[in-house]
Amino acid sequence: MADEKKIEISDEEAQKLLDKGKKKAEETINDVDKFERLLQRIERKLKLVPIAGTTLAIIPTMISLVKSYVQKEYTDIPIGSVIAIVSALIYFVSPIDLIPDNVPVIGYIDDMTVITVCLKMVQSDIDEYLEWREKNGKNIE
Fold first, then answer.
1. Opening angle at CA 62, ends 131 and 56, nearest 5
2. How far is the C-alpha of 125 from the C-alpha of 32, rounded, in Å?
3. Is residue 74 helix, strand or coil?
4. How confident is the model at residue 95 (pLDDT cuts 50, 70, 90)?
5. How far apart are CA 131 and CA 139, in angstroms?
6. Is the dihedral of CA 23, 53, 78, 44 positive or negative?
7. Rounded to an integer, what distance in angstroms lies between the CA atom of residue 111 and that of residue 9?
8. What is the pLDDT of residues 50-86, one digit of tens each?
């Protein structure tokens, strides 16, 4: 149990990681090819995660929101929220993590923490997007 305490990252550390990725997130949003490559990397990584759980299950919705934003279908969201989401997604697929992903199970703790902190910041925006998507017949399910 003592080792588990050492691998946890705080919300503050996760927030710093999100902030660190903002510039790259802005560049990704504005480059269709970079954005598409990011989506492909996320798809591949989600297939590798042993148990996505509820924390990582939000990622497809986050992707859908950003994709709708980039395609100018849904723009009723602050750009800061879009940047935070893309920053979290970039961190999720980044091979350079606080805890390397190749460490069984615990390698995804930092990824989940970054996604969770981002979600705390943008949850209301995601909820509004889901309402919009349902109202406009955009649900994939």
1. 115
2. 22
3. coil
4. confident
5. 10
6. positive
7. 10
8. 665 667 778 889 999 999 999 999 999 999 999 999 9
**138 residue type, one letter:** K
Question: Which pair of tokens denotes residue 34?
Answer: 């970079």
| Amino acid identity, position 130 | L
Phi and psi angles of residue 63, each rounded to the nearest 5 degrees, phi first: -65, -45
Closest by CA position to 92, among listed 43, 130, 131 = 43
pTM of the model: 0.71
Nearest-5° Cα angle at 115, 109 to 117: 100
Q: Band of the pLDDT at 119, cuts 50, 70, 90?
A: very high
Q: Is the pLDDT of residue 45 over 80?
A: no
Assign residue 31 a region (left: φ > 0; alpha: ψ between -120 and 50; beta: otherwise).
beta
